[in-house]
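Much of what follows relies on a compact textual record of a protein's fold. Think of the row as the fold of the chain written in a discrete alphabet. An example makes this concrete, so a full record is given next.


***
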Amino acid sequence: MSEQKFYDTQPTGENHEVDYKDPTDVEEIEEAIKFGVIDPLTQKYALWVRTKMWRRHVRESIARISEYSSVLFNRIKEIAEKTEKRQTQVEQRQTKIEDQFRDVQQNATVDSEVINARNSDIYGKFPVLDDRLENIEQLLVKFLPVGFDVTINHELGLQPEINVRTWTHGIGVMKLGTEPEGLFGGSASQSIPSQVTHIDSRTSIISLPIDYKTDAKMIMLDDLHYLIIDEDNLRSIIFELRR
């Protein structure tokens, strides 16, 4: 795509005197603008702002840009609303189809052992066996300390006790005051099931449930505290070592 061309002009008032207050030059044109796609109307209005001599013409140019921006915004908003409505309809149909399929599965099964396996003394009855298996799988990925290994080279010269805690929407993950309602400063911390293997007196491997797996780098806060900030999941994980 060809580079956009810009013109450096001297802003002049109707009395032919420059009365702007900021003497510093503007920054370089951002690449997003320089190499982006700008529609013809926006280009025309921007050129007017840069080159028109009289104030009333410049003001009208700015007003045109504002009005045209509103037109574009409402056009995009309309498309987004239609897309969201369409997506909702698709999801509703998908849910209906899945429910119908479950009914077929449930009523088509005649094996008494399979039917009996749908039910759990702890979690109750499930419409089909797959639902119960999915429930078990969800519990495993959240609570079974397998699937995500974290190595800490602590150099303590002993085998420390290691506790692991996590919280979401905390400082470092998102700006203070932008959290969802009720989570100001982050959620309450909770313990993560973990299994610790001491390779030697200076190296420990902590196994966590796969639900906490992340590619985020670990930060050493001090000799006894290590932190992982998982921005993708808005989650922080802290490892607390005790001598």
